[in-house]
Amino acid sequence: MIGQILSTMLPVFLIAGCGALYGRYRSPDIKGLNVLNMELFVPMLVFGVLADQKAPLQDYAQLALAATVVVLGSGIVLYPLAKVLKLNLKTFLPPMMFNNSGNMGIPLLVLAFGDSALPAAIVLFIVEMLLHFSVGLYMLDPHSSIIQRLRLPIVFASIAGLAVNISGIHLPDWLLETLNMLGGVCIPLMLFALGVRMLEIDFSDWKLGILGAIACPASGLILAWPMIAVLDLPGLQVASLWVFAALPPAVLNYMVAEQYKQEPHTVASLVLLSNLGSLVVIPIVLGLVFSAGYV
Prior knowledge:
The protein is mainly alpha-helical and 295 residues long. It contains 14 helices and no strands.
């Protein structure tokens, strides 16, 4: 089991470490890399996985439902805590709800459970991303246009991939291979960018960061447990949901907070310190998943 955890986490640490080391001396344009990743490579990966008939989407409907409950339910579960501690709800709750299913979730699930986990990882990522750009942005600005919020390449790629999958259209192998090659770029690039972002950690809000590092995975795991008990999910999807529920806040929360001027400095500390805390949480969750024999 220790060997399985190490074989999963070491590539994550090494690639992110390369990003941190490179960023320490070269200061790359990480914003430009993230834009390229989110507008080209990630949509290619999403479309390719969804359009591939080897991954029938009806098999992942319950997983998508469970992920929705985990994301939205985390905000409900942590609302009383935020009120008691007198935290700014717009600053604290979105990072607790919208986790790092892209930069960390996709590569982590693939490394942990193999390529067969990629469809589940993509479904979880799409659910989190769509909720982030609909519910999440509404939480920050109720007056923003939903059309503007959803006008994103990842949304178009998701809709197109769903249409191809549901219609039963079989794309030629050469096209799927091209999509897979382009999409494959996004996984190491996500981890590399995460490593560069880790250099921006500010320990001035360390108390809130520690709270987030505990509250984010705790709320997700609390909500995942009844969903796993109620829904008839295959073992691989159960394992994927446990890991998804334990993921730290998405780095995207900081970018959105900066755009909406919602205490970006505080959000950055909350997000990055929580990601640092995941170095402890994720190996524990993986150990429990492997020991339970879900995969």
